[in-house]
Batch of 4 targets.
Target 1
Amino acid sequence: MIVGERKPLAEIAELLEPFRKILVLGCGTCVTVCLAGGEKEAAETASALAMLRKKAGKDTEIDTHTMVRQCEYEFIDEEQDKLANYDAILSLACGVGVQTMTTRLPEKIIMPGLNTTFMGYPLEQGVWTENCLGCGDCELGLTMGICPIARCSKSMLNGPCGGSQDEKCEVSKDVDCAWHLIYERLSKVGMAGRMAVIQPPKNWATSHHGGPRTSVREDVRLENGK
Amino acid sequence: MKTESNLEKMFNAGHFAVTGELGPPKSANLETTLHHAEEMRNHVDAYNITDNQTAIVRTSSIGVAAHLIQRGMEPVVQMTCRDRNRICLQADLLGAVSFGARNFLCLQGDHGNFGNEGGCKNVYDLDSTQLIHTVKNMRDDGVFIGGDKLDHPLPKIFIGAVANPFADPFEYRALRLAKKIAAGTEFVQTQCIFDLDRFEKWMEQVRELGLHKKVKIMGGVTPIKSVGMARYMQNNVSGMIVPEELIQRIKGAEDKKKEGLKFAVETIQRLQEIEGVHGVHIMAIAWEEVVPEIVESAGLYPRPAVN
């Protein structure tokens, strides 16, 4: 899922400084699950913001609402009436949601309330970890399910660097060395020989390095894009 | 093709090679760096120039290499994958070859977060193995990564890599060297050796795989200047092992610097006894002036002439 973290309140307050009537808009999908931008967080953010603005003597009106998801036009269209009559909307969706909203509702001011951090999963209660970069050319078949692109700090494709020690990455003792994990995994499934195969330079053009990406499925497309 | 690398000739002649490390300054004033180079001129066969080591911005490795060549000294140009994509790495290799650089050491590079530009974008378009293979393909087949041909062939350049016997998983480290050799590596420098027992264990694995016959191995030696420095390397530098008994030995010595130098010399002498070790790379970090003394004490002076 997409993982996010709420921006510091001071930054949110600064973004919303010019506006009086504000809607704090939660998103019911990924960011609800990662406890960053769901209904509960929308309520908390709205009340904290109201308090801050009141203290600063600013005339303010803040409501909250949560949509099923902000990253699809059909959900946005369904709830248009609830989004009307605000000077600004603080979206607690990920960056995808904020931009889908902006594209669909260009007359509205949509401000981001979260920092979209990564694609990952909950490791334990309150801890999320990144494990996919969306490189567009999945290498997991090569490494038997452990991504060297997202989980090796240097995105190496040919084994661990010299900074791998005690199973940890040189960047931090809190980060596992992905190549140590891959080595152990390949050894366990009897494929350690793969470590010897030289992997050629990766084609990064399938990732963001090729520019913003669009995925087209002609077989499910409607005629004339309807 | 006949090599123009003095370092390669030294190996080919069967001599135990000696290289010294030069760390470029955080300025464009190379006076001190070149002074250090002059100090060890007669004691090393080539100078290894670091490439923004520990991700700290300095004069480029290639920049310093050009100055050395002007002075008749031989550089080993370090090239890390951290700061340059494949376009720039290939272009810089051509540029460096054009002014006479013949030795290239291809490595991954310390992660950018460590340095003085912690907010930088780490490139890592290629990894070290891919860079080694790229240089080999440019030299031997005259092709760039993308498939274009070089307009003119490259001269014989000498391709180096690093190896770290002190990193993990330990049992994979000799195999990792084998992979780098398969990619095109002709000489390697190792991480600083303080734990000789582990180094020897690694060399055993290297010999079992027959790698010592395919590649020239230079052991990395760093003289310990103080207990604080040893302790720092022990606790803060990933991929390094500094045994506690070595720290205690330095600590217990009356003249700690002298003891540090003594250990460095002992290490080099032991390296010369190990089958498959072909040279030493001395990394006297911020203590370059002691290199001649170390080389002489280790019985490696005068340096033999090759042509």
Target 2
Amino acid sequence: MKTIEGKVVVLGAQGVGKTSMVVRYIGKMFSHHISPTIGASFFTCNINKGDIRVKLQVWDTAGQERFRSMAPMYYRNANAALLVFDITHPPSFSSIKSWVKELQRNVEEPLILCVVGNKTDLESKRKISREEAEQYAQSIAASYFESSALNDSGIEEIFLCCAEGMITLSQDKLVKTLRVSPSNDRTENGRSERVNVSNHPSASDERPPLCC
Amino acid sequence: MWTKKKPCLRIDESYLKCKSPGCEFYGNEEWHGYCSQCHREQFQRRRKKVGFEVQHQEPHNSSSATSLKEKYVKASLPEFSKFEEKKRQQTEKTKKILSGIFRKSPEASKEKVRVESLLRSELREVEAVRQEAQDLLRAIGPAADADVHKCIRSFYKKLVQEVENPMTAIEDLSERTQNFYQLLTKRFDEQAMYAEMTNDQKEQLLDYTEKYAMTYMYQLLFCPPTTTDEEKDLNIQKRIRQLNWVSAKHMDCGINETSTETHDLVYSAITELLGMDSAKAPQDKLACVVRCCQKIFTLMQYCVEGPTSADDFLPALIFVVLKANPARLKSNINYVTRFCNASRLMSGEGGYYFTNLCCAVSFIENLTAESLNMPEDEFSQYMEGKIVPSNTWESALIMCEGMHLMNENLLRFAELSKKSDILGDEAEALRDEMVAFHDEMLQRIDDLKESYPLIIKPLKEPTDLDAEDPIVHELPPPLSPQVVTEKPKVAEIDSPESPEWRLTPLPDPNLTAVNYDFDLSDMSGGDLSTCEDLGTPGYQSMETASVQSLDLNAYHPTVVVKPVETPGAASLLDDPPIQEEVELPSPLKPEPSTSYQGFSSQGWQIPSIPCETGASRLGSDRSPGPMDNS
């Protein structure tokens, strides 16, 4: 079993629901044993895809404008970026665009981009149409997702997409920041066995993320 | 230092000349093919480009020659002269020869002595590190143990050599260290003697190596005189001191400065952050940062509803850094950045929190009025100390210590008075309840009294069965016909009382047989005997009552039964044959009508049941009891 370790940075303006999204995702996976003292701004999760385990390190960032200049420290060495905006709030969408420009300018290694339109529960107040966002995502070669942290919809897909993207990236020899390590049988055996039991052997994709 | 290292600028063919165009000096492999002067220039430029440095603090950044001079004059004069000498030598010889000369030169050996004395000062702690890892070292076996220490030794020998050369930039040392980590990782994976180890053990061994080597060389690598770290430390310290008026409100991080719990948590976070300076190994410093950040998360959970996000966390961290003003902050950060295993720093919780700390420091360095959302002039006034905001942390600490106490006491009083109010209310409620209960009880008793009135019947005297009783005469006639079958016998036994209707009941043997069982449970005999034994006139016995009230239609419990004159009572007392009478079942019992009627009359006279039963029990035992309350 191969293990890929990658860093995912969550970017977006303040109040678009970055943290809620992440919390929702962790809450589902760790509902029993997440330590309450650890905040939601950093967490790791393992997603198993076939015989590959993808270890995602999710870095939440502060969305305030005044911390904007510090962002390079966060997305340095990142392998994926979740660009979150609020579908009811057009400025948050334009801030995504400036984020993308900045990333394209500063990050040399290939980066998986996921544009996420959050707050679909406020469909009636929607200002950014799905088409518009999808079109934009296509133009920057990103995948587009819509989610609702409140209703817990569409969040798992985002992280799955990141994991899939990392697997693709790992086949690219040029990517150095992604840490690929063939698991040592002696140590990983117990773990991988446990994972295999819960995984359906035939299904190759769209399997629920498992964590340990 | 946040950009990646530039691709190696090594020149294969002619590394003798300096790489920068138009420079007449010889280059050096150690300095990427530049001469020392150009390398430094290049290096400074690179640093400046990164933007991580404090802009305002390095006026000498632009001209490297003066900066070099300044720095070395500042550091120590002998070193400067040594530098000049070396530079001269450099122009003549290749690096290899040069290094040989260096080692032999008296200055260099003096340097070596200094280095060794520095290293020696760490020996005790290094031993402690080794002791700590005792279990791990034993687990991996002596061969691996020896090999690891051999690696470390060779590494620090090399590193010490470089440190001796004051021209070695700290970046090179850092690179060398990182290479060492990488080589070691590779070695662990490839060498046979490490094959037995688990991945976890390898990680631990790497940690140990890092800790061991870095603790050993701490004095050499931490804040070395060749860098401007110390200067930066002073600058940031001054800056933070200038910013001491910044409050949690300015940072907009939701920390309530006046609550005691918050104080405690902020203090513990500050303590952890300050602890960073006393730790030696980079990973220990990192661990301090992680602990500090976790304390801040606890704090944020206390202050802010819901999960803590980076939006809340970063301002809080900045606030803590501002209030802590940790010693040698920049040196520590640089040290960790340079000498912590890069793979650790890049990933994981430690990396995240460390990045946040760097972010906080960078924010503090570049703090402007805009970043605090306040007007420019107000900001500058604060900075110059012209105005002091009322709600700073210090004033909250010093001035408001008494206020805190007062507030807390007031809160406590409010709580107490609330509690006493509740107590009063409850007491009143209890009283009302009790009154209600009392009334209800009385009411119930009244009701009961009404529905079950206590009938105090006048004392009854034993019925004189022989007397002329109008009631007896009113008795329905049908009874008498049943009576007489064995009249002579009855009369003989019961002569004293013998009312005809009563003593007749043994008409035929059939009836006798039937009523025999009945006789024991029946109370007639016992009753009579009790009355006799006590010798007191009681209520009329059940038997008699039933006898009297044979005309039951007219009987009512509330109606006081008229006492019946029983003159024959006295004679009964003395009458011995009473035993006989009981023994003889037949004569008394057989009369079915009597016993039947007695039952029904019993139903009427509930209150008098107990005494009757008691009496009957006693009677049936044939041991006359001393008491009879009737």
Target 3
Amino acid sequence: MTDIPNPTPAKKAKAISPLRAAMLDFAASPLAMIGLFVMVVMALSAIFAPWITPQNPYDLSQLSIMDNNMPPGSESFGGMTYWLGTDPQGRDMLSAIIYGLRMSLMVAVTATLCALAIGMAMGITAAYFGGRVDTLIMRVVDLQLSFPAILVALILLAILGKGVDKVIIALVIVQWAYYARTVRGSALVERQRDYIAAARGLGLGHARVMFRHLLPNTLPPLIVVATVQIAQAIALEATLSFLGVGVPVTEPSLGLLIANGYSYLLSGAYWISVYPGIALLVAIIAINLVGDQLRDVLNPRLRR
Amino acid sequence: MVAYLLRRLGQSLLAVIAMAVLVFIGVYAIGNPVDILINPEATERQRLEVMERMGLDRPLWEQFWVYFGNLLQGDFGRSFVYGESAMSVILQRLPATMELALFALVLAIVFGVPLGVIAGLKPDTFTGRGIMAGSILGFSLPNFWQGLMMILIFAVFLGWLPAGGRGQTTEFLGMRVSFLNWDGLKHMILPAINLALFKMALVIRLARAGTREVMMQDYIKFARAKGLSYRRVVLVHVLKNIMIPVVTILGLELGSMIAFAVVTETVFAWPGMGKLLIDSINRLDRPVIVAYLMLIVFLFVLINFLVDLLYSVLDPRVRLAQRGAQ
């Protein structure tokens, strides 16, 4: 270092906040932006389903049995076009899919948030206190992760029974271990930093240091895991519902819609099963694209 | 080595016991099994009688010992639906599942390893990228959906293969197997591919990562410098060195394949253990559910143990490290 750098340009570069920089990095990938766009469109249509669907597929007064099993694009008695066809009850598949998406997303997002909260608390506790607490928590995590998620979920639902709340509980129990492990990993590194010792030295309590100082610094890898896990949760819920141990028939998710159409698949009425399947597929791929890009943006080792 | 094995064996036993306790809590402590067993209109007196006969009026810890003692003898009670011992109901279905899982495992290796090696040798070409994109799809798409699409394409539209069922079986070593006759094989192709796809994606990734790492090693450069052909270097030197992680992970994955077979068997109506589990859940056949659970836990623990053994045989570094530690 021979000359002192001019402070002004450095200041200018600093004017971009880390959040903004991350957003700009994220936008650099067109594929990820498409994924994000699809994700937002799907989330909005799920939230506003009752207002945007052509009919309420579970209001029997709006269904006409005359319109059953119509192929995509056919016109109903009332002059409405069924763009994606109808099912054996004369239900508009497009409406059914949007409602199914609503159910799938609701279950997956709720479960992921709950699992995130539990896993985060457990992981931070394990890393912060170390010793026996750490061993105990991580043994449970290891034991659970040594069994495939689908198996654990099946067992839980076999014991708990059917229902939306039960599916959410099963997904939470299946997922918390991933977050606990991720948080513990990064918290172990952060715990050694001086700012934690400083915070303790100031006389702050354990809870405050853990959640106000340690936690925010372990968030980036957690966001990446959580994004990918939402996709996993959607897929797992769909699988469970397809197997008939998930959500009840009165509130079908995409998985249950696919299962309902399964019996008609062999007779050639492909649309009842295939279109909900495509919706499921698009949702999962979009979330994975976003998750992949987030991983690249938030991983400091890959930073240019 | 012996000390290491004993310690691993101890850990395995602990895992089985832990699962047995969890299953006990799940089945006995949460909810009273009697509620499912008897008619809801039964009188309180009948209810108590059944509870006494099943030993449910005794303290929980005593019940646990009875349950645990029965487990040790392989007694899981009688299936409510089939009226036979729950374990024998499951064991009758075991060969069908094992055959499917093993066939799928073979498919995953036979197709996964070469594809992964190609992707690892040419990571930046169209082929390499294409293979990786395919493996990402294999990972992220739900298994049952892939199965449905296969049925739609190959059974409904093209009509080449049957959509489900097991087809004809042949007697082989006292078991009924599908792979020895054409009809049975035809029924097994789609479910086996379906079960294999996820693992194939995994094998491709492992083989690719392994190949990229091995290709940079000095012994590969040396082998090439020595005048060995590219073909021989890849087929002998690279392949041998990437097989360790592939074998380890796949061994571990055999257990999860049996678990995933639940989905595949349901989609393709394959009469194995997985379909039995789903049927039993729907019919509340608890003895069968418990028996399936304990069997699969046992299989998992056994597989983990065997893989550890195999690993130390395959990789001399592991063996030597243990010898050095003694």
Target 4
Amino acid sequence: MPQIFHRSANIYSKASIVGGVLFAGLALTLILTISRSSYATQQNVNRDQPVPFSHAHHVGGMGLDCRYCHNSVEISSSANVPPTKTCMNCHSMVWNESPTLEPVRASFRTNESIAWTRVHDLPDYVYFNHSIHVNKGVGCQTCHGQVDRMALMAQHSPLTMEWCLDCHRQPERYVRKREDVFRMDYVPPSNQLELGKQLVAEYKIAKTENLTSCSTCHR
Amino acid sequence: MENTSTVKELSLAERERAAVIGPGHTFATITDKIASIVLHEPSPASWWLGLLIGLTLLSGLGLSVGYLLFKGTGIWGINIPVGWGFAIINFVWWIGIGHAGTLISAILLLLKQRWRTSINRFAEAMTLFAVACAAIFPVIHTGRPWLAAYWLFPYPNTMALMPQFRSPLMWDVFAVSTYGTVSLLFWYVGLIPDLATLRDRATAKFQKIAYGILSLGWRGSAVHWHRYETASLLLAGLATPLVLSVHTIVSFDFAVSVIPGWHATIFPPYFVAGAIFSGFAMVVTLSIPIRAIYGLQDFITLKHLENMAKVMLATGWIVFYGYLMEIFIAWYSGNEYERYMMINRQMGPYAPFYWALIFCNGIAPQIFWWKKARTSIPILFIMSIVINIGMWLERFIIVVTSLHRDFLPSSWGMYWPTIWDWMTYAGTLGLFLTLFFLFIRVLPMISIFEMRTIIPQAKVAGVHK
């Protein structure tokens, strides 16, 4: 009876055993890597905006406080994207004929909001509240990065749930003093863990089992 | 190979063999008969009809699952208070049916019940297909199957979420996936020598290559046989505890909760017995038409059918005992909710289903006390259908009557399946039929080499009469 397969089929069949395991491992690694890549999370991707607003210029260059524009960050779940009127406080005087700022003036004239492109977009089933974080000593910079250096705004953090939980499981690794919350140039001290534990106690930050309970963020 | 050292043992064994295979068969006739169904004979019209029915129902599954994905679980009859409906009923029903395959292939192998030989191959195939049908329900039951990965399996996802390991539903995932894997391996390992036979007898090039790849280079040498025997014994050893564990864990889905009607210690043994009961019923349902269509009465003899009827009688009694014990415990507990649950089952809005269940699983199988009934093909076939229906009703009663009247009368409600529930269920029946008909077309539905070992010629060598 003639052979169906060539002699080389032996090596293929043996290689397929190793190959199968390798392929499964590779496929899993690939899925896990892609789901954390900036392709999936949109991390560090600069977004085009109707007006090329530069945080680097306004915060880094001129030293505006975060709260000048994001004025409800300490009292509300939303930090607030400022109305055109806030822009016009200055831009009715400075750069008031710049063609770049025409959309801002148009918005002011017509009373129609500028349609900014949202950069930090959590899923709708996450109930995120800015005020609790700011009041318990989580710096703006901890999540949003050094905004004072961003010409165009990009999402600094992955915003994955594992990233949220990283802090909710060990807040002492990230909290700072309340007076430092809005500082952009803050560098954690060498005794962060010690300070963190002290602040967790002082600010009465909830226990990990409460911070990681489903209904803390998903209601 | 079985060791037949004394004349007395041999003659006993021979008597058994004589009953489990028709007279006059030789090695060659067995191989010819089984292999030619796959390789040479054109498919009979009834095969095409069966496949057509299967595919029709299967397209209903595609339609109903498609609509489910589009619309969500609102298309089903579930709501508060009955949040568990057809999905879990059908899951448990299918998983139960799968149990006969493992029981026949593993436990009966270890117990050297040689009559299992002619039914083990397709009973194992039936197990695999039943597990496949069962697996559909947990995956689709939220209407968002693409999320199933993270609530079924622990893996490092971006949510840092692990499944709830304290939940029996999680244990289910491991029990069923282990069961599916071991069953698949067992079935495949058992197929290898037969696949090699098909490879050697195939005439078409494509068949030669396909069976050649699948038979993994089997040449039938002594080394191969030695390894085969070791592997199949090891797998039988692995599969044996699974026969008991899988449905035990499925019963925990209910028993671990604190709902009257679910929270019962009798659940694990009674579920396992029920699983074997329904599994054997399904084997009978399948084997009766198959032996008629393909003329396999010599291989699947009345002796097999009678043995399966005996298994159904025995496991049926365990199940019936479970029903009686549920009634007794409801009274004995002195708990008003337990008592009400049982009264509601027997006299409430679902009472007709309860009494139909008692008839199908408790009363009707008593006919198997009579040998005439155990060896009558029409009675066996009708009874196997009755038992399949009864076991489905059992799951319906357990799931629905325990939930629909909650502790507070203000949260009472009724559950009725919708057309989409029925289409999904019928669709899994279609999937099962389709897979089964494809299986009997492309693989030997009876183990050729094991059948050859049960004819007398296989045993006489080395024994002096």
